[in-house]
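User: Continuing from earlier, I have the next pair ready.

Assistant: Great, send them over.

User: Here they are, in order.

Assistant: Folding the first of the pair now:
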Amino acid sequence: MSYASARDIFPEDILEIIQQYIEGEYIYIPKKEENKKPWGELTKSKLELQARNKRIYEGYLSGLSTTSLAERYYLSPKSIQRIIYQKKNE
């Protein structure tokens, strides 16, 4: 996310209206709903987490304990249990 000067973006009359509500501060203008992308769509994060969770579940099925999986993947035992539960129900 980058910042831009409102003076460079808005016409003077709109800038004056905005200044009635806020001036000299940073504001975030969210994207329109139809322009939003689902989480992980722009990076490989979603695919990497899915692959990791698959490996965790396979480790569980092969007999590894939730504690050892938690240590191996640097997650809490509760997180490992949640991943196993989700994978069982897929």
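And the other member of the pair:
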Amino acid sequence: MRTTAFIPATMSVSARHVSFTHRDASQPALQDVSFDLAPGTRTVIIGPNGAGKSSLLALLAGKRLISNADLRINGHDVFRNTAGTGATYLGTEWAMNPVVRGDIVVSAFLDSVGGYRHKERRDTLLDILDVDLTWRMNCVSDGERRRIQLVFGLMVPYDVLLLDEVTVDLDVLVRDDLLKFLKADSEARGATILYATHIFDDGLNFFPTHIAHMSFGRLVSPPTQWPLEPNSELGLKFGSASLYQVALQWLKEDREYRRELEATGLKLRGARRDQTVPDDSETFYRKYDYSH
């Protein structure tokens, strides 16, 4: 087992030598990931689909257990003291839970999870996310259900917020208002935010204090100050580029790296043009005939 280094309790989020492989997977989802996030920082994780962003956030939320890594939030081991970390995790799978698709009025649903205890903050979020308390959970659209999730998850104050693609269903106006709220909340309370997203329009430029790049389970660029410092390594590479331009370049580099791997004979994605496919459907589907 790897010996982990001392992690200062002053860091909001700390990771040391995090490696993780999903059951039955041939490739690891995370490979030796280490980083620290200071209190009050807002870090956007950039990376292609399958880079390991969701796996990292799920581990930080204590949703999966691994034994050969040290993951801490506010100095607490996330695998042994999840309740004491002060962390809130919001991911896309929430909207698929049958419980939140039942025939229940939104006001009753929010009260059932303690919304009445945080009325002022809850009401602020209801206004920002434009949620109707008379909606029924089984009748709302995907975007409206996502808004309800965000009220549900954000109405209780947090120390660390882990966001995994939860703004993907929001229209651009609501998303902009939400990001402004999260930024102001982070600055006022010193809350730390780690946000994985694939939406890099101009509205995201103002939000992060740091950006990070993940690819093939590796942390290619650890959390780096944003806007980029002109004389830093990334500052010299990207100049005054927008966050969209930085993300686009990193994703292009990821794709080229994958193609280099494929050139060695390992085909990862896309069509298999070297395979012979029958021209007629009868021959093609014959292999599925189990009548003999």
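Worth noting for the second one:
Residues 1-8 have pLDDT under 50 and may be disordered. The chain has eight helices and ten strands.
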